[in-house]
Amino acid sequence: MINKALYQLYKKHWIELKLAVDQLPDELKPTHPLLLKIADEEGYKKAGCRIMIVGQETNDWNGKFGKYGIEQLQDIYADFMAKDTKAKRTLFWRYQKKLMSVFPRDIDSVIVWNNIYKLGKPGKRGRPNKETRSIQELHFNIFKEELNILKPDIVIFLTGPRYDAAIETYLPGVVISKVREGTVRQIAYLKHENLPDVAIRTYHPQYLNRLTSETSVFHGETPAITLQNIAEKSLWSEPGEKVK
């Protein structure tokens, strides 16, 4: 069972994580971690294409660490994914619809959201402080195992090149290489034993939104075009037909 495996993964690291966070001064403590849960496990397993969208970090996630436990946080995540809330009308979430529009209509696609940094700032935006980053690396280094449990067919990192070091931390040995449609900073292939054949990294949608076809050869539509080209070659021999 996917959710049971995710729960056991988080439980395995929870005590170490909590002890490390409890040692931080209050002003440095992170928000709660982003713990994944699939609302419809059978639907996820049967989906024609499972897509993981990876962001940077949460801008708060239910307040400062300590109020909620694993099961509560997983339920909060599943509830968030199931509802159309104000938070899901931001550029980050709207851009996902653009990416999904490139797939054939008869392919049943399902999205799971993740972040490269599982711990963010409570009530604030931006990269977590160095103390939080160190705690995640030492005590909550779970990104590879989440990939192994969820087995996505496609992974899209909407993190931008400044987060490549974080990707390399949680996927050691990852190869980041140039895609035909842009420079390696703009869009890149990611190759790693824990990643599927289709894995790309591009800018965060907030930055992509500034790039138009009138002002830049590489623009907000380019990642969707690239994804379509890669997916057609790697996943479907014909539109709507998944390669076994």
TrEMBL record:
Domain of life of the source: Bacteria
Record-linked InterPro entries: Uracil-DNA_glycosylase-like_sf (IPR036895)
Name of the protein in its database record: Uracil-DNA glycosylase-like domain-containing protein
Organism ancestry: Bacteria, Bacillati, Bacillota, Bacilli, Bacillales
